[in-house]
Fold:
Amino acid sequence: MQPKLILKDFDKFGLNSYEARGYLSLLERNRMTAVEISRIAGIPRAKVYETLENLTARGFCHTIPGKVKKYSAVS
Structure:
């Protein structure tokens, strides 16, 4: 399946493009910081925190507390 088709499938779950790309990048790795997600998913740093808050609120990822907060996908 092509990446654009995969991203379009996330519309069914009510995710926007940033949220879909962020979630897919979280699925690729176990734990990541917001900066890592921003870089890998191509989400602007100004939007990555809002994107991660939305994903967390919808149950797509959870926060791992620590000196540097990390995020992990929920399958």
In short: Strands lie at 32-33, 61-64, 70-73.
